[in-house]
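WP5 quarterly update. Target: Helix-turn-helix transcriptional regulator. Source organism: Tepidibacter hydrothermalis. Length: 178 aa.
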Amino acid sequence: MCYRILMKRERKRKNLTQEQLAISLNVSQSDMSEWEAGKREIPIDIKKKIPDILDSSRLRLEIVNELDADLIVTPYYSGIKSDLIRLIAKNIEEEEESIKAQKELFNIVLENMTGKEYTKEQIEKISDLMEQIADPVGWKRMLLVGVEEEIGIPIKSINKRIQKKVISKSYTRIGGRH
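Structure tokens (predicted):
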């Protein structure tokens, strides 16, 4: 499905008018009308904002498809045209970076187990590490949407499994609260 048609569908799903979306994007309503009608191309910087405004993983995935995965360049699978394989590879890359950041965060916290105050530099580093740890979340959402659409496994069924696992494994929260 082309981006403009999906954008219109997602806009309506969120019960937004063209004018409301245009205001959010800081463009004119006539621009929105022309983009949805296919009279003009939507600028890429606008395309990148729309999925966040409409909270649409499908639109994010469509951008990746349209740009032929320029956003997800991987050394292993750059010649493969499967969007799902590229998304999986990008998730692996992001997870590897996240794990490195988690290890570094672990070491900083471990060094400060004595209860001393964190230095300004440590706090800045922890902030950067937290961002790196959170990065894979968006890619995971896109991957789940891709699996749901290509393979047909509904995300809702995965969420139910995860909830059951959390209960059965008695996972705890930070601070020991259950």
